[in-house]
Amino acid sequence: MDEFKKVSVLMPAKNAAKYLDSCIQSILAQSYPHWELLVCNDHSEDETLAILTQFASQDSRIKVFQNQGHGIIDGLATVYAHASGHFISRMDADDLMTPDKLLRLVSACDAPNVVATGKVAYFSEQSLGEGYIKYADWLNENLQSSDPFQAIYKECVIPSPCWMMHKSTLDEIGAFTIDRYPEDYDLVFRMRRHGLKVKTVDVVLHHWRDYPERSSRTDPNYADNRFMDLKVYYFLLDDYDVTRPLFLWGAGKKGKLIARLLQEKGIAFHWISDNPKKIGHNIYDVIIADQKQILDAVNAQV
Q1: Going by DSSP bridges, is the β-strand pair 114-123/87-90 parallel, antiparallel, or unpaired?
Q2: In what order do the strands lie in the sheet with 87-90?
Q3: Residue 283, exposed/middle/buried by CB under 10 A (0-12, 13-18, 19+)?
Q4: What mean pLDDT is reported for the chain?
Q5: Which end of the chain is more exposed for a tag (fewer CB within 10 A), N or C?
Q6: Mean pLDDT, rounded, for 244-266
Q7: pLDDT for the residue numbered 152
């Protein structure tokens, strides 16, 4: 094995027994053989550890570790400490790789300033929600743009289990040392902060499995408010311009959450809305103004 071309695939696993066999089989079927699979068992209570141990006994490229903490971030940090590959990639224990995923990502990840990714598709043994289909379609389309990071405040623009970077680059941007959820979205913001270039493979490389128990549906770390906390955090860190008047547009549920977050940080803002029922009302000690006010603002930031 050429150690300089090896891919370390990091995979946390918690109570993943139901789908683990098919997941690992899709990794074993990769056309690119120079990989190691580093799996962190996150205190599973089902047969996850037994399944992992069996696979590891059959293929030396598969290595199993116990989470030294709790949760995905601790799990990723645990296995990352043992990564020996030149490239780093991710996998979820309930998903599937296409056979050429690693090969195509290695080919695309041709420089340290690059994050390589590819298209994704959801599948489900039950009915697949329309929202997931729309997100995958939007994500795949956005990945074709000249700068996918431009849409970062809409949604996470790099699919969590479908990226690859040089290990040196991941070290530079912080790897899994920051305890901030959602951890995949946070990592993408840090990719943007460090000026990484997105190179997209124009085919589906990863199949996301949707089911009722999926972490993104059940884990409070992936609730809507955590996403908004993260967006406001990075907006103030990277994009807020103190020399421009800041306008918060919208006074619905998300608008109110943003208002509270800005006030907690001591950030002054004008609040506008197109809803006649909200205009003129005092919410959190701010009077909601008509959105037309933005027309009179000079160099406003919205």
Answers
A1: unpaired
A2: 62-66, 35-41, 7-13, 87-90, 163-166, 114-123, 197-209, 96-97
A3: middle
A4: 93
A5: N
A6: 97
A7: 98
Q: How far is it, in rounded angstroms, from Cα 2 to Cα 84?
A: 12
Which tens digit of pLDDT belongs to each residue from 19-48?
A: 999 999 999 999 999 999 999 999 999 999
Contact (CB, 8 A) for 112 and 169: yes
Pairing state of beta strands 62-66 and 35-41? Answer: parallel
SS (H, E, C) the chain: CCHHHCEEEEEEECCCHHHHHHHHHHHHCCCCCCEEEEEEECCCCCCHHHHHHHHHHHCCCEEEEECCCCCHHHHHHHHHCCCCCCEEEECCCCCEECCCHHHHHHHHCCCCCEEEEEEEEEECCCCCCHHHHHHHHHHHHHCCCCCHHHHCCCCCCCCCCCEEEEHHHHHHHCCCCCCCCCHHHHHHHHHHHCCCEEEEEEEEEEEEECCCCCHHHHCHHHCHHHHHHHHHHHHHHHHCCCCCCEEEECCCHHHHHHHHHHHHCCCCCEEEECCCCCCCCEECCEECEEHHHHHHCCCCEC
Q: Which of 52-56, 178-182, 247-251 has the lowest mean pLDDT?
A: 178-182
Side chain identity, residue 113? N
Are residues 212 and 244 in contact, defined by beta-carbon separation less than 8 angstroms?
A: no
Count CB-CB contacts under 10 A for residue 249: 15
For residues 167 and 84, the answer to whether their CB atoms sit within 8 Å is no
User: Does 218 have pLDDT greater than 60?
Assistant: no
Is 81 a residue whose pLDDT tops 80?
yes
Closest by alpha carbon to 239, among 193, 179, 195?
193
State the pLDDT at residue 219: 54
